[in-house]
Amino acid sequence: MLEAYEFSAPLTSTSNAAARRRPAIDWPTVAVAAGTYSAFGLLTWFHQTLPWWLVLPLGGYIVALHGSLQHEAAHGYPFRQRFWNSALVFPSLWLWLPYMQYRASHLIHHRNERLTLPADDPESNYLTAESWDRIGPLHRTYRRLLTTCAGRLVLGPPYYVARAWVDLLHRALSGDWPYLQRWLAHIPAVAIVLVWVMGVCGIPFWQYVLLYVWPGLSLTLFRSYLEHQARPDVGHRTVIVEAGPLMSFLYLNNNLHAVHHLEPAAPWHQRPRRYRETREEVLRWNGGYRYGGYAEILFRHFLRPKEPIEHPLRPA
Prior knowledge:
It is built from 14 helices and two strands; from the N terminus they run ααααααααααβαααβα.
């Protein structure tokens, strides 16, 4: 049973002070955005002359990096004004999810005291016992496959895209106008990308999905695969993955996820330094929930589920 607790975040006061001193423009984030769009433009422009086995990892990396950039925009970077942050990440490279919907649900996810609870955390991968009983045998099999790294990487993208569309249909039928407005704003965000990709660069839609969108979403789902675990102590729910520079940059240091949940207002490029300064404190707070890198995660969970699908705790 999930009992009441006193939420003690060891770095929060320092983070709030740093947030108040933030510059008007966070130039490292602007540089990442410029580099991401430049790399995307070059790769798609030369797409027809490159082999698919080179386009796939590069396309996936760029699309996933843009998703990491959206995460930073949701937390208020690089500008102080929400409008300019939204404008910076407006083109939807991965096509499937409106940025404004992602922003709204992700900020709800940051209520640390409700992390992983299916009814309260929109990014929870757990199901309630009632939801598990409701779904059919085929859906159950699919969900079991998603608890492994292999299933998450290969089968995750179509599953989460389908879930988003089913949710859109339900919201439309129920007349959820604010939700529908986010999807309407998503239409030009997708159109901008497809006009460039298909109209200018001549890339067939199916190739863009298979070589850019699918691997990009796979890499994003790989990051979130074990970011959180269901534990009675709220601090023990969030992971630290001590990844190398390639994967750390891909996720804009969000692999140091416990640091991010302790300091959500701090910019991505400060996380490694803050983790080095407070490593023992952070690992004590999160109960030592740590991996040495994403290779270790693959080795341990490629075909072995990390946790049960049903949420093991019950809210007090």
